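As agreed, record minuted below.
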Amino acid sequence: MRDDPSPNRPSNDDLHRQHHACMAIPEALQRCVASRGDGDPTWRRAADALIAELCLALVQHFADEVRSELFVDLPRARPWDAARLARLAAEHPVILAGFADLRRELADLADASAESRWIARLRAAIATLRRHEAEETEIMLIAGWDDLGGSG
Protein backbone atom coordinates (compact mmCIF):
# COMPACT_ATOMS: atom_id res chain seq x y z
CA MET A 1 0.00 0.00 0.00
CA ARG A 2 1.29 3.40 -0.94
CA ASP A 3 0.52 6.73 0.66
CA ASP A 4 0.23 8.98 -2.39
CA PRO A 5 -3.37 10.11 -2.38
CA SER A 6 -4.93 11.91 -5.28
CA PRO A 7 -6.18 15.41 -4.44
CA ASN A 8 -9.61 13.93 -3.77
CA ARG A 9 -8.42 11.13 -1.52
CA PRO A 10 -7.32 11.22 2.10
CA SER A 11 -3.82 9.99 2.83
CA ASN A 12 -3.23 6.91 4.94
CA ASP A 13 -1.73 9.24 7.55
CA ASP A 14 -4.96 11.28 7.61
CA LEU A 15 -7.03 8.14 8.07
CA HIS A 16 -4.71 6.95 10.83
CA ARG A 17 -5.08 10.27 12.69
CA GLN A 18 -8.87 10.16 12.26
CA HIS A 19 -8.97 6.58 13.49
CA HIS A 20 -7.13 7.48 16.68
CA ALA A 21 -9.34 10.50 17.26
CA CYS A 22 -12.49 8.45 16.69
CA MET A 23 -11.31 5.75 19.09
CA ALA A 24 -10.39 8.23 21.84
CA ILE A 25 -13.97 9.49 22.09
CA PRO A 26 -15.47 6.11 23.11
CA GLU A 27 -12.80 5.86 25.79
CA ALA A 28 -13.92 9.25 27.15
CA LEU A 29 -17.54 8.11 26.92
CA GLN A 30 -16.80 5.02 28.99
CA ARG A 31 -15.01 7.12 31.61
CA CYS A 32 -17.99 9.49 31.67
CA VAL A 33 -20.47 6.68 32.23
CA ALA A 34 -18.26 4.99 34.82
CA SER A 35 -17.97 8.19 36.84
CA ARG A 36 -21.69 8.94 37.03
CA GLY A 37 -23.17 9.36 40.46
CA ASP A 38 -26.51 8.05 41.67
CA GLY A 39 -29.21 10.50 40.69
CA ASP A 40 -26.72 12.95 39.17
CA PRO A 41 -27.85 13.78 35.61
CA THR A 42 -24.77 15.85 34.70
CA TRP A 43 -23.09 12.79 33.19
CA ARG A 44 -25.88 12.71 30.60
CA ARG A 45 -24.95 16.15 29.26
CA ALA A 46 -21.33 15.08 28.98
CA ALA A 47 -22.30 11.78 27.33
CA ASP A 48 -24.58 13.63 24.90
CA ALA A 49 -21.76 15.97 23.88
CA LEU A 50 -19.32 13.07 23.47
CA ILE A 51 -21.75 11.05 21.34
CA ALA A 52 -22.41 14.12 19.18
CA GLU A 53 -18.65 14.60 18.77
CA LEU A 54 -18.23 10.90 17.93
CA CYS A 55 -20.98 11.00 15.32
CA LEU A 56 -19.41 14.01 13.61
CA ALA A 57 -15.98 12.39 13.67
CA LEU A 58 -17.32 9.11 12.30
CA VAL A 59 -19.24 10.83 9.49
CA GLN A 60 -15.96 12.40 8.30
CA HIS A 61 -13.87 9.28 8.92
CA PHE A 62 -16.27 6.93 7.14
CA ALA A 63 -16.67 9.34 4.20
CA ASP A 64 -12.91 9.58 3.86
CA GLU A 65 -12.43 5.83 4.21
CA VAL A 66 -14.75 4.94 1.34
CA ARG A 67 -12.74 7.31 -0.91
CA SER A 68 -9.42 5.87 0.30
CA GLU A 69 -7.10 3.20 -0.95
CA LEU A 70 -8.66 0.79 1.54
CA PHE A 71 -12.06 0.75 -0.17
CA VAL A 72 -11.19 1.90 -3.70
CA ASP A 73 -7.92 0.17 -4.63
CA LEU A 74 -7.63 -2.80 -2.30
CA PRO A 75 -10.74 -4.64 -3.52
CA ARG A 76 -9.22 -4.63 -7.04
CA ALA A 77 -5.69 -5.46 -5.90
CA ARG A 78 -6.82 -8.06 -3.34
CA PRO A 79 -10.08 -9.55 -4.63
CA TRP A 80 -10.09 -12.06 -1.78
CA ASP A 81 -10.72 -9.12 0.58
CA ALA A 82 -13.45 -7.50 -1.57
CA ALA A 83 -16.45 -9.11 0.17
CA ARG A 84 -15.02 -8.34 3.60
CA LEU A 85 -14.41 -4.71 2.61
CA ALA A 86 -17.92 -4.41 1.15
CA ARG A 87 -19.34 -5.72 4.45
CA LEU A 88 -17.25 -3.21 6.41
CA ALA A 89 -18.39 -0.34 4.19
CA ALA A 90 -22.00 -1.44 4.68
CA GLU A 91 -21.48 -1.29 8.46
CA HIS A 92 -20.68 2.43 8.40
CA PRO A 93 -24.29 3.71 8.34
CA VAL A 94 -25.37 1.02 10.82
CA ILE A 95 -22.68 2.04 13.32
CA LEU A 96 -23.57 5.71 12.92
CA ALA A 97 -27.28 5.03 13.33
CA GLY A 98 -26.60 3.06 16.50
CA PHE A 99 -24.80 5.98 18.13
CA ALA A 100 -27.43 8.46 16.89
CA ASP A 101 -30.16 6.29 18.43
CA LEU A 102 -28.28 6.14 21.72
CA ARG A 103 -27.97 9.92 21.73
CA ARG A 104 -31.69 10.40 21.11
CA GLU A 105 -32.63 7.93 23.85
CA LEU A 106 -30.27 9.40 26.42
CA ALA A 107 -32.59 12.26 27.36
CA ASP A 108 -35.53 9.91 27.99
CA LEU A 109 -33.96 7.50 30.47
CA ALA A 110 -36.66 7.26 33.12
CA ASP A 111 -35.01 5.22 35.87
CA ALA A 112 -31.92 3.29 36.93
CA SER A 113 -33.09 0.20 35.06
CA ALA A 114 -33.46 2.11 31.77
CA GLU A 115 -30.10 3.74 32.41
CA SER A 116 -28.46 0.32 32.92
CA ARG A 117 -29.96 -1.02 29.69
CA TRP A 118 -28.79 2.11 27.83
CA ILE A 119 -25.28 1.74 29.20
CA ALA A 120 -25.19 -1.92 28.12
CA ARG A 121 -26.23 -0.87 24.61
CA LEU A 122 -23.60 1.87 24.60
CA ARG A 123 -20.92 -0.65 25.55
CA ALA A 124 -22.11 -2.98 22.78
CA ALA A 125 -22.01 -0.12 20.23
CA ILE A 126 -18.49 0.77 21.33
CA ALA A 127 -17.42 -2.88 21.05
CA THR A 128 -18.88 -3.01 17.53
CA LEU A 129 -16.98 0.14 16.54
CA ARG A 130 -13.74 -1.24 17.99
CA ARG A 131 -14.15 -4.55 16.17
CA HIS A 132 -14.97 -2.73 12.94
CA GLU A 133 -11.95 -0.42 13.12
CA ALA A 134 -9.66 -3.30 14.15
CA GLU A 135 -10.80 -5.31 11.14
CA GLU A 136 -10.12 -2.42 8.76
CA THR A 137 -6.71 -1.88 10.37
CA GLU A 138 -5.88 -5.56 10.04
CA ILE A 139 -6.66 -5.53 6.32
CA MET A 140 -4.48 -2.45 5.77
CA LEU A 141 -1.60 -3.90 7.80
CA ILE A 142 -1.68 -7.22 5.98
CA ALA A 143 -1.88 -5.50 2.59
CA GLY A 144 1.08 -3.30 3.53
CA TRP A 145 3.01 -6.30 4.79
CA ASP A 146 2.29 -8.16 1.56
CA ASP A 147 3.46 -5.12 -0.45
CA LEU A 148 6.76 -5.35 1.41
CA GLY A 149 7.08 -9.03 0.52
CA GLY A 150 6.17 -10.35 3.94
CA SER A 151 3.52 -12.79 2.75
CA GLY A 152 5.73 -15.49 1.56
Summary: The domain at 13-34+43-147 is CATH 1.20.120 (Four Helix Bundle (Hemerythrin (Met), subunit A)). Helices lie at 12-34, 42-66, 69-72, 74-77, 82-106, 112-147.
